[in-house]
Amino acid sequence: MIFVHDKGRMANNMLQYGHVYAWGREHGRATMSMRFAYKYPWFHICHTRHHHFRNYLFAKYAAKWHLIPTVRFDTEAADYSREEQLMRHARFIYVGGWYARWYDLFLKYKSEILELFAFDKPVEEQAANILDVTADKTQTSPVSIRLGVHIRRGDYAKFQGGRFFYDDEQYVAVIRRFCEQHPNETVSVYICTNDPKLNKDYYLKNLTRCHVIFPAGNPAEDLCLLSHCNYLIGAPSTFTLVAAMYHDTPLYWIEDPQAPIVFSNFDTLFRHIY
Fold first, then answer.
1. Cβ pair 266, 14 in contact under 8 A
2. Pairwise CA distance, residues 236 & 102, whole Å
3. pLDDT tens sequence across 206-230
4. How far is the C-alpha of 249 from the C-alpha of 196, rounded, in Å?
5. pLDDT of residue 144
6. In this structure, what are the phi and psi dihedrals at residue 201, rounded to the nearest 5 degrees?
7. Which residues on adjacent β-strands are paired with residue 96?
8. Quick check: 222 and 242 in contact, CB under 8 A?
9. What is the predicted pLDDT for the residue at 58?
10. Which entry of 9, 88, 170, 262 is 20 to 30 Å from 37 by CA?
11. Cα-based distances in Å from 83 to 15, 32, 69, 101, 174
């Protein structure tokens, strides 16, 4: 059994576990995500055989007391042949590190990873309810495009030196440019954020051509709703990346707020995470 010590927040954990899961499938090894054994209860994986709190406690303390081996993937592009050898042969092993990445294997087993991270029914129902309410409000002008926008604040004030910490004016400008590219279509904009003090009135006043909605769900509900949009826009983040993974949704990462809007897809962008 490979116990995966996930790093960072929910979307980071999903990607990291996905890589180790794919490696395990290729080499006939069972895997378990430490975080999804107890912390994020909204996904199918949380109800699978190995994902329960007893296994979490066993792995945590067995690794802490050096009863099982631990391998780390903490350096990009390092030689990890020794670590992989241990992963093949140790009965139990504790694996951690952000650079545990096997891109081709991830894509090979991507459909299985998506099944593991399928949203529980109440999460899907919540997203559907919000999307249905939007449709009801626009019956005279049917919604033809759903644009999901993720406004990342909080930790992004320091991440990469604040490089991707954009203000409201910059996000509005990007959304407007998107709408200008679709002059004959109705656009509903679903804005999800980790900023509890977001100036919602600013967006409502400056995006009058759009139907602006603030879902304000828990992390899984926001992720699920974004996954059902037709297009996604946000600062480079694993949150929008994972949202794009579910239905191969076109994703634009704002690396320069003044640059042209060019969409890409999960299979390309997940190889270039900041």
1. no
2. 21
3. 999 999 999 989 999 999 999 999 9
4. 26
5. 84
6. -60, -35
7. 5, 72
8. no
9. 96
10. 88
11. 19, 17, 10, 13, 44
Residue 127 near residue 224, CB atoms below 8 Å: yes
Among the ranges given (4-18, 55-69, 131-145), the one the predictor scored with the smallest mean pLDDT: 131-145
Evaluate if residue 107 carries a pLDDT over 60: yes
Torsional sign, CA 243, 245, 249, 250? positive
**Lowest-confidence segment of 70-74, 136-140, 213-217, 231-235 by average pLDDT:** 136-140
DSSP codes, 126-165: HHHHHHHHHHHHTTTS---EEEEEEE--GGGGTGGGGTT-
Helices (H), the chain: 10-27, 53-64, 81-89, 103-108, 110-116, 121-137, 168-180, 200-206, 219-227, 238-247, 266-269
| Mean pLDDT value of segment 146-168 | 93
pLDDT of residue 134: 65
Q: Tell me the chain's radius of gyration from C-alpha atoms.
A: 20
pLDDT at 274: 85
Question: CA–CA separation, 181 vs 199, rounded Å?
Answer: 25
**At which residue do the structure tokens 């983040």 appear?**
237
Return the HEC string of 168-204.
Answer: HHHHHHHHHHHHHCCCCCCEEEEEEECCCCCCHHHHH
Q: 78: which 2 tokens?
A: 């390092």
Strands 251-253 and 145-151: unpaired
